[in-house]
Amino acid sequence: MNAQKTAQTSTVHPRLEIRNLRRTFQGRNVVDDVSLAVMPGQVTCLLGPSGCGKSTTLRMIAGVDMQDAGEIYVDGALVCDTVHRVPPEGRSIGLMFQDFALFPHLSVAANVAFGLKGSKAEKQARVEELLEKVDLLGALKKFPHELSGGEQQRVALARALAPRPSVMLMDEPFSGLDERLKDDIRDSTLEVLKAEGTAVLLVTHEPDEAMRMADEIALMRDGKIVQQGAPYNIYNAPVDKKSAAFFSDINVIGGEVQGALVSTAFGEFLCPGHADGTPVEIVIRPQHLRIDFDRAGRGPNPTPQDGTPARGIVERARFMGRESLVDFRMDFDGSILRATVPSVFLPKQGTPLWLMLRRERCFVFPQT
Ligand SMILES: Nc1ncnc2c1ncn2[C@@H]1O[C@H](COP(=O)(O)OP(=O)(O)OP(=O)(O)O)[C@@H](O)[C@H]1O
Ligand SMILES: [Mg+2]
User: Fold this and answer.
1) How many Cβ atoms from other residues are within 10 Å of residue 63's Cβ?
2) Which residues surround ligand 2, an ion (CB under 5 A)?
3) 35, 167, 346, 358: most buried, per Cβ within 10 A?
4) Tens digits of per-residue pLDDT, 113-156?
5) Who's near 52: CB < 8 A, 6+ residues apart?
6) What domains are there in the chain, each with its CATH number?
7) CA nearest ligand 1 atom 18, residue
C-alpha cells in the first residue's frame, strides 16, 4: 500500500507529448503518425534527412501550423487536437530556430527581458540569472551588432528560456555557426537547458550533433519515426540498412539464407527467422573490419569471432588525421569494401591485405 503510494507520487510526467500527429500536404503525409514524449530535463533529437518532416512536426507543436490528425500535450494538458487549439503564446513553449533574430534596436538585457512579465526588479533578476548562465553578464548593455555570432546565439537562448517555458523547440539552432564554435556552444547550451529542467525537442540532420546532444534520438524518415532510443542503441542496433547508413559509411555484403545461415566469402553468418532462399544483406561499419597482413598468399587462421578472412587489394588509402580510410578491391567478387584503421597505418595502393568481419558488429537485414 505504502510502496504503491510512493510510486504514484514520484511518477514524473512528460513535459511534452505528441500522439499520432499527421500533416498532409497535397495528398502526401509529410508527417505520418508521429508520437513521442519528452521528460523534464531531457533532450530528444528529431534526426533525419532533409525533407523528412522534422520542421513540420516542430511547427505543429509550436502552434504555427495545425495538424490534420493527432494531439499535442504540454505538462499533461491538451494544447491542440483537431478541435481545440491553444494559440502559440499560450503553450509554454520556447522557440529557437536557425535564423533566430535578436531585436537589433534593443540591448542584450532588453532582448532577454522581452517576453517577461512581472515587476521591474523580478525581470532584472531573471535577465541577470540567465545572462550569467550563458556567460554574457558583461554584455548586458551591448547591442546585437556588437556581438559575435556565437554570443548572439547565447543571447537568443537566454531570451527563449527567460519565461521558463516547459518545452524548448530548437530547429537546427547551431547550423549558422562557425564549425569550430559549434561544439563549445552545443555543450554550454546543453548545460543551461539541463539546469533549467526544460524538456527539449531539437531538430537536426547531423548525426554527430544528435549523438552529442541527445538523451534520446527519434530517427525520422519519410514522415515517420523509424527508430527511437538512446544514441548508443540507435547506433549499435539499427533497425535497417538505411538507419545504419545514416550514421556512417557502411559496407554491404549480399547473400542468401540456407538453413538459417548465409554463406559468404567471410564464412557463415547466423540469420534465424528467414526462410530458405531469402536474399539478405550483411551490414558492417568501416571501423569494425579487422585487417591482417598477407603471409605469402595466406591470411590469419580463422577465429570463431572473426570468421573467415578474405583477401583484398588496397585500391586507395587516405590519411584523415585520427584515422586512415582504406578502400579494398576484394578478390572474391571485385567489390569494394571500406575500412577505417588507426592513422599510424597507411598502406600503399596495391598492397594485399586480409579482412575479417567482427561477427558481433555485423547486422543482417533482409534485402530491400
Ligand atoms: N506549407 C507546405 N506546403 C507544401 N509542402 C510543404 C509545406 N511545408 C513543408 N512541405 C513539404 O513537406 C516536406 C517536409 O518538410 P520539412 O520542412 O518538415 O522537412 P525537414 O525534415 O525539416 O527538412 P530540412 O532538414 O531540409 O529542414 C518537404 O517535402 C516539404 O517540401
Ligand atoms: Mg527543417
Assistant:
1) 19
2) 55
3) 167
4) 998 999 999 999 999 999 998 889 999 999 999 998 888 988 99
5) 220, 221, 222, 223
6) 12-244 (3.40.50.300), 248-366 (2.40.50.140)
7) 53
